[in-house]
């Protein structure tokens, strides 16, 4: 017999957020492609990346890309596991692993982005 599942337990919020983050990631991906691969002055050297990261907007974009990507990817993995009728302890174990890995990798990404130093513009130009 059919059992009504309220929207609280259906995963509908997760589904909507998954779609929103997907659209945002496409926008970020197009911007990333244009900035990093299509623009002739982009450069992929350490100096070019360091120069670009002197602007806080690039850091904000990278942090946003990181958070959206991690949520979107890990939520997708969780939704794959939700399709199977697992035992409650298996659901808790898998969700716990996803959360721990997500927090760890997001923290690692934040650490890397915030570890890039702000430097004098004169030292970047070689003077």
Topology summary:
Elements: H1 7-10, H2 12-38, H3 46-52, H4 56-82, H5 88-115, H6 121-124
Helix pairs in contact: 2-4, 4-5
* Structure annotation, total helices: 6
Decide which structural class fits the backbone.
mainly alpha
Low-confidence sequence ranges = none
Please state the oligomeric state of the protein chains shown.
single chain
Radius of gyration: 20 Å
What is the 3D shape?
elongated
Following the backbone from N to C, one meets helices and strands in this order, namely: HHHHHH
Strand content: under 5%
DSSP summary, beta strand count: 0
Major sheet details: none
Mean pLDDT equals 86
Spatial gap, N to C terminus = 77 Å
Estimated helix fraction: over 70%
Notes on the structure:
The protein has helices spanning 7-10, 12-38, 46-52, 56-82, 88-115, 121-124. With 127 residues, it is an all-alpha fold. It has a domain at 57-127.
Task: Kindly summarize this structure in a few lines.
With 127 residues, the chain is mostly helical.
What are the main properties of this structure?
6 helices, 127 residues, 76% helix, single chain, 0% strand, mainly alpha
């Amino acid at each position: 017999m059919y059992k009504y599942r309220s929207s609280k337990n259906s995963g509908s919020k997760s589904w909507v957020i998954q779609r929103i983050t997907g659209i945002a990631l496409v926008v970020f991906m197009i911007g990333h492609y244009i900035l990093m691969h299509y623009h002739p002055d982009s450069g992929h050297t350490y100096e070019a990346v360091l120069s670009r990261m002197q602007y806080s907007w690039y850091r904000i974009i990278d942090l946003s890309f990181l958070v959206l990507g991690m949520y979107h990817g890990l939520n997708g993995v969780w939704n794959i596991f939700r399709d199977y009728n697992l035992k409650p302890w298996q659901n808790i174990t898998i969700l716990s692993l996803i959360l721990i890995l997500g927090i760890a990798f997001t923290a690692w990404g934040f650490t890397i982005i915030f570890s890039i130093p702000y430097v004098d513009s004169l030292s970047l130009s070689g003077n």
